[in-house]
Amino acid sequence: MQNLSNQPVKSAHELKRKYEAGERDFRAAELSKADLQETYLEGVDLSGANLDAAKLSKADLSGANLSGVYLRKANLRGANLSGADLFKDKLVGADLSEADLRGADLRGANLNGANLNAAKYDSYTVFPEDFDPISAKMMQLEE
C-alpha cells in the first residue's frame, strides 16, 4: 500500500501503526534513533530513509527495500535482513553481528567499521566490490 499522506514518517510509533494498517511505503522516513527492536516489518519500503543510530536489533526486515538508507551506527544485531535490498546503504559503524543477510543485496554499501561478526550469508548474498565476508568473521550457510 502506498504512502497516502506523502509525508515522511517521523516516529517509530507512527511507522508501526501504519504498517499494521497495511501500509508498506515509508520512503524517506526520518527515523534516526528510533526504537524498532523486534519489530516485524517484512517487505517494507524504507528506501532513502534516515535510520542513523536506530535500534533495530532482532527486527524482521526480510525482503525490505532499504536501498540508499542511512544506517550509520544503527543496531541491527540479530536482525532478519534476508532478501533485503541494501544497495548503496550507509552502514558505517553499524552493528550487524548475528544478522541474517542471506540473499541480501549489499552492492555499493559502505560497511566501514561495521560489525559483521557471526552474520549469516549464502551464495545469493551480493557484497560490495572487494569485500571479504571471511575476514569480517561472517558465517556462510548452505542453501
Can I get a quick summary?
This is Pentapeptide repeat-containing protein. This protein has 143 residues and is low in regular secondary structure. 6% of the residues lie in helices and 3% in strands.
Describe the secondary structure blueprint for this structure:
Blueprint: H1 12-20, E1 120-121, E2 139-140
Parallel strand pairs: 1-2
Proportion of helical residues: under 10%
DSSP strand count: 2
CATH topology: Pectate Lyase C-like
How would you name the CATH homologous superfamily? E3 ubiquitin-protein ligase SopA
CATH architecture: 3 Solenoid
Q: Terminal Cα separation, in Å?
A: 32 Å
The residue-averaged pLDDT reads 95
Name of the CATH first level: Mainly Beta
Inertia-based shape: globular
**Unreliable sequence segments:** none
Number of domains: 1
Kindly estimate the percentage of residues that lie in beta strands according to DSSP: under 5%
The largest sheet is: 2 strands, parallel
What is the alpha-carbon Rg in Å? 14 Å
Number of helices: 1
Category from helices, strands and their pairing? little secondary structure
Q: What are the secondary-structure elements, in order, as H or E? A: HEE
- Major sheet: order of its strands? 1-2
Protein name: Pentapeptide repeat-containing protein
Pfam families: Pentapeptide (PF00805)
